[in-house]
User: What shape does this take?
Amino acid sequence: MTSDSPAPVSGALAEALAARAVVLDGGMSNQLESAGHDLSDELWSARLLAERPEAITEAHLAYFEAGADVAITSSYQATFEGFGKRGVDREEAARLLGLSVELAREAARQARAKGVTRPLWVAASVGPYGAMLADGSEYRGRYGLSVDELERFHRPRLEVLAAAGPDVLALETVPDADEARALLRAVRGLGVPAWLSYAVAGDRTRAGQPLEEAFALAAEADEVIAVGVNCCAPEDVAAAVETAARVTGKPVVVYPNSGEVWDAEARAWTGRSSFAAGQVEGWRAAGARLIGGCCRVGPEAIASIAGTLNRVR
Assistant: This one.
């Protein structure tokens, strides 16, 4: 580490990962939809931060009660620019970003009041630039922006989320190694650890870069306590875990989709689920330490993952 490098960021979650596997939650949107909430808006679940914050707390609580150790906040699609399109000024947008962390903390408090005694953590979700565009480009990358421009987009939101006091920043569903470079720059000096998680197709990022090269960007980043993949097919996970562990030497984070496919034109999921809790034993053996689910993976599946990991920890 050079003399001008920031001090390494660590904490209780990083220490836990050195000792055992930790269970992530599942999809926020499917849990909210199953409770009857309409998420057809461009802000997706972030809209409920303003309109129905208690619903977000209830969704987090369902996952904690199912066995999740980490709640990922509802800030994936929450950006100053996205809120601005809806007439929300920057002060209110900042309040809503901070609220996303507070709601997850409240769910942890409620879980403890109901008898949950294990450690519980909050990960502040930071979605890619394409999530703000709400046009599916988060699954393609290649926005036509420079790394510097992407860093300027992400940094203000990261500052607000970090100030809200999460245990970790979840830099998630990143489709492009260029955006990963921007995010890794943007988290420097914030004093909060982060994980970096790519959206992938096979052995490449969604933008087409080899995963070996994409993961290598995080190898020397002191802020990054885990690196891996999310919002991908379960079949893509095993090879990605092996590559991430080998290239970075860091704990690996994995939380795939159910295996169903999103039809952007029809705005509906198609196909069948291929997610099986039994797969996690292999992921754990290969180096995965943060394991959960993304789209269409609900509390029942998270309970199965927790049960499986409790047997192999």
User: Anything to note?
Assistant: Residues 1-10 have pLDDT under 50 and may be disordered.
